[in-house]
Specification:
Structural class: alpha+beta
Order of helices and strands: HHEEHEEEHHH
Strand content: 15-25%
Shape: globular
CATH topology of one domain: Beta Polymerase, domain 2
CATH class of one domain: Alpha Beta
Number of helices: 6
Largest sheet: 5 strands, mixed
Number of strands: 5
Length: about 200
């Protein structure tokens, strides 16, 4: 891999490119998970989720890894500064403005590949009560076992990329991309939420 770090504009442009599923995704996820496991506390579970975790789904060549941290109710919204520091030492960039909810922290790392392409890693630190399953993992598992809905989601992902391509700012791109997929995701989650 190259040691060159992509520029912010290269990262924005890369985020909304669309790649067919590639067989190396699980390997990339396993290698990064193993690397991070060596520095993480034993109670932290590292889970590969998102499109690159579902064979056949297209995506943005960004490996999503969730760091699932079981905590008590009084610690759910406390920032995991120790974990963030460990990840920053591994060249991850903390993005405090990207907060989906009060129990989640987001970091990212991008790099060039030997062929001149790029790949990215997104880290989602998620605090949960013991025994709880984050919805993204339940959604991944659902797609793995429901091929018809997985195919429909693939169609929506393609439409989401087209919608994002019509926007100028990164905020507008993110919003267009998310809104195109959101109704489908909410519908699936309504089906499986009692199981979470």
């Amino acid at each position: 891999m190259s040691t060159l770090v992509p520029t912010p504009q290269e990262i924005i442009d890369f985020r909304y490119q669309y790649f067919p599923y590639q067989e190396m995704y699980p390997q990339w996820a396993d290698e990064e998970s193993q690397r991070l496991t060596q520095i993480m506390p034993s109670e932290v579970q590292i889970v590969h989720f998102g499109s690159t975790a579902v064979p056949g789904l297209s995506g943005k060549r960004i490996i999503d890894l969730m760091l699932v941290v079981p905590v008590g109710a009084d610690q759910l919204s406390t920032e995991p500064t120790d974990l963030i520091t460990l990840l920053e030492e591994q060249n991850y960039s903390h993005r405090p403005k990207i907060r989906i909810d009060e129990q989640r922290w987001f970091l990212q790392r991008f790099e060039f590949l030997a062929d001149g392409g790029m790949r990215g890693f997104h880290i989602h630190i998620v605090k949960v009560l013991p025994g709880k399953t984050p919805w993204e993992i339940a959604f991944r598992d659902y797609l793995l076992t429901h091929p018809d809905d997985c195919a429909r989601y693939e169609e929506l992902k393609q439409a989401a990329v087209v919608a994002a391509s019509h926007e100028i700012t990164k905020e507008a791109k993110r919003e267009a991309y998310s809104q195109t997929k959101e109704p489908f995701i909410l519908g699936i989650m309504a089906k499986i939420s009692p199981k979470i």
